[in-house]
Design brief:
Radius of gyration: 18 Å
Number of strands: 2
Strand order of the largest sheet: 1-2
CATH architecture: Orthogonal Bundle
Number of domains: 1
CATH class: Mainly Alpha
Order of helices and strands: HHHEEHH
CATH topology: Ribosomal Protein S7
Shape: globular
Structural class: mainly alpha
CATH superfamily: Ribosomal protein S7/S5
Largest sheet: 2 strands, antiparallel
């Protein structure tokens, strides 16, 4: 009987990137980011799941697939998931070459850094409206982070020589390497 190779049991993203995390993700987001579970261990970020059927089911979608889905905005790549998967793969390859780190862990770091922690809301009654500061929920932080990363990459690639994959890699690297400055 032939022994199975050590690769037979490992499921890696695109057959290359494993699901190791450096532990630098924000603790409030860990529950909502599906990263290394039995349902999210896939070769390609295309599970064909119906994550919008119920409220909050999108939290069960693998995070790399959610990044892929945010690239399919209105315009040229609307609904073209194969193109979005190719863009994400190119971005992960560039991230791995530039930083020499696990790109999936870097994506988690970028998502935890890119999401806003505080926002303003309108409060008041009658004609008097006052803006007050409110905390942002963890799910909204993830949604906004994915939205801002994908929109930033699309706008950087618009009328540019660089491809969307290159711009997405730059956005992810920049968001992961952000240094927070506090003004006192």
């Amino acid at each position: 009987m032939v022994e199975p190779t050590p690769f037979a049991n490992e499921i890696k993203l695109f057959g290359v990137y494993d699901k190791n995390n450096d532990g630098k993700c924000d603790l409030s987001l860990v529950e909502l980011i599906q990263y290394n579970t039995s349902k999210t261990n896939v070769y390609v970020p295309h599970t064909a799941g119906r994550y919008q059927v119920k409220r909050f089911r999108k939290t069960q979608c693998p995070i790399i697939e959610r990044l892929t889905n945010t690239l399919m905005r209105h315009g040229r790549n609307n609904g073209k998931k194969n193109i979005a998967i190719a863009i994400v793969r190119q971005a992960l390859d560039i991230i791995h070459l530039v930083t020499n780190r696990n790109p999936t862990a870097l994506v988690l770091e970028a998502i935890s850094n890119a999401g806003p922690r505080e926002d303003s809301a309108r409060a008041g009654s009658g004609g008097v409206v006052k803006k007050t500061a409110v905390d942002v929920s963890p799910l909204r932080r993830i949604n906004l982070a994915l939205y801002l990363i994908s929109i930033g990459a699309r706008e950087a690639a618009f009328r540019s020589v660089r491809s969307v994959g290159e711009c997405l890699a730059d956005e992810i690297i920049a968001c992961a390497a952000v240094i927070l400055f506090f003004i006192f």
